[in-house]
Amino acid sequence: MQLEKGDSLTEGCFTFGKVNLVPSMEEYTTLLRCPRIQVDKVYSRAVNVLTFVKKLMNVTGMSEQ
């Protein structure tokens, strides 16, 4: 990679500006080649649902009632 005079290599590698580095659902669908993924749905897999719910409640500051 050739940089202009005065530019540093690390500056060129780590300066992103306003680039969005988070892939969108459309990009994930394309990467995974899985056209059945619906953009308006949330997909997740919890190994132990009860543990997941307790951790989620702990993070959000909720209590069991």
Question: What does the model show?
Answer:
The protein has one domain (9-60). It has helices spanning 9-14, 25-32, 49-60. Helices cover 40% and strands 0% of the residues. It has three helices and no strands. It is flat. The mean pLDDT is 64. With 65 residues, the protein is mainly α.
Q: Quick one: how many beta strands?
A: 0
Question: Which sheet architecture does the biggest sheet show?
Answer: none
Count of runs of 4 or more consecutive helical residues: 3
What class, by secondary structure content?
Answer: mainly alpha
Indicate how many domains the architecture comprises: 1
The arrangement of helices and strands along the chain is HHH
**Unreliable stretches:** none
Give the N-to-C terminal Cα separation.
59 Å
Helix percentage: 40-55%
Backbone CA Rg: 21 Å
Shape: flat
Name the beta content range: under 5%
Mean pLDDT: 64
Topology (elements, then pairings):
Blueprint: H1 9-14, H2 25-32, H3 49-60
How is this structure best summarized?
The chain is mainly α and 65 residues long. The protein has one domain. The chain has 3 helices and no strands.
For this entry, give a set of tags.
40% helix, mainly alpha
